[in-house]
Amino acid sequence: MTNNRIYSFSQTAILLLALFIISCANFKAYFNTFYNAEVYFEKAEKSRLENRGDALPKIAKTHYEKVIEKTRTTLDDFPEFDRRKSAYLMMIQSQFYLAKYGDANRTLSEMNNELNDEVREDAVFWTAMIKWKEGKVQPAINDLTAILLNDMHMEMEAKVHMAIAEIYFDQQMKTQSMDYLEKAAEIIRDPIEKGQIYYRIADLSFSDEDYDRALSAYQQVIKLSQTNKQIQEGHLRSVQIYRLQGQLDLATRTIKEMLLDENYSTIYSDLELELAKLYQQQGMYVEAKNRLESIVQDYQQTIASAEAYYMLGQLSINQDWDTEAALKQFEMVSKEHKQSLYASSAKIRLKEIKAYQKIYSEYGPWMERVAQVDSMGNSTLTFDDEIGLSTVLYGLAELELFHFSRRDSGIIYLDQLIAFAPSAPLVPKALYAKSTILSEMGDDSTANVIKQRIVKLYPKTDYAMAIIQSDSSIATEKSNSDHQLVSAEAQWEIDPILAMDNYKEIVSTDTVSEASAKAAYFLAHQYDYEFIRPDSAIKYYEWVLKHHGGSEQAAEAQKRAVVLNTFLADTTDHNAN
Fold first, then answer.
1. Of 89, 64, 61, 63, which Cα lies nearest the Cα of 75?
2. Whether 459 contacts 494, CB under 8 Å
3. Which CATH class is domain 481-576?
4. Among the four 18, 313, 329, 391, which has the fewest Cβ within 10 Å?
5. What's the rounded Cα separation, in Å, for the pair 144 and 128?
6. What is the pTM of this model?
7. d(CA 516, CA 509)
């Protein structure tokens, strides 16, 4: 009997031990699965937060996919698992950031059906977030704002504020977005998350030139961030803001103190650049140039040296007018660092300088031609010569005035064009450019005299029309080509023959305006296709090519002129035979 009891007890003990081992194994299985999901989730969230505002990193996408896989396994295979709410919320959030909104909605329904009131607040939150992504912006904001009326944990309150901020930012309502981000930052306790929020506030505010808010936020980043890169950026942006706000002494003093501190060694090059900009801003060009030259020597092949070369090139243009030096310096920008923000601007500068040097090489020979006169003291330049000379002079003026901001020398070239090539078609354009520059310089009286001259001597040009439209005090009794063109177009429906005469009048009196190019091309087209008079069509096609070779009508005019000339030549040969 005793033996039986011992045997029975042994059986029971073994059974209990087996059940215990099985339960432990089961516990270990779902615990490990969920633990792995949490690890992937933390990694994904960290990556997303560090890149907030940019595209979701590939590694974050991979981690979110793993979260969905692990939480799905936990929920389906281990119904006794007691942290089901956490599993559901991790899955929903992962699906949301992977833009799987349909899947997220289905998981929300599943969670609601199982957990009911326990997840009501979270369910409303994520439903609102999905509404936003599906284009229902105002309903999403309304739902989130309603949540704030309830009592809730501070963590959830901060989360709602951040969500509303994100929606406002997406809608380009940046001020409201910043307000809600600041509310979230004030509430949230986690220093890492708090630092990330302030970094976002600082970065966005700096981009929007809201420097007071940016400076305040960067100070918080320096205090709270766990990322050395963000802390260093906070220090650098702070001195940049001092400079941009005109606190030049404070900026200079702060930079010099930081340059003596080894803790800022990773941003020494950026600090040196800021110091050069401070010198330049104060008109201390020698000091700025010396600092920049030391940067290109001390920090070769870096973002900083690329920017320094660009700044040196600008100084060579703006202060020294040394195009050769500027050419070499701008060429170095992309060589120092191909990803430099100044690489594309440097390429544009190189094109401008090379174009200037090429045109300027033609300037000297033309000035020698201008100096030549006949026995009566008159210029020996022909009409074609004046066209060539005016092209060179206007090219130089345009580059000096509108690309290199050299007004004085630019105006000199315009004056030379007006004086030495008075018959050239570019004269009214040169006069108009000069009047515009003089107005910008505050010399309105001289500018108005030039405008009156344009309206009087070139009434049918686009420049005269622009002057009349912009200044009612300047008027002309003569109708310009644009008005005549409108009248001719209206007349065409009523009396085509009379309309043709109106088009011809425009062409006979105006070789400059865009309206005359349109009129000539219209005549050519009608003679070509309607009246079948190829000789007249050729006449007007060639007129377009002669006076408006760069117009949009010129290409087609060239094609048709060749075809019609060939046709007439073949016809003449056939008749001769």
1. 89
2. no
3. mainly alpha
4. 18
5. 7
6. 0.63
7. 9
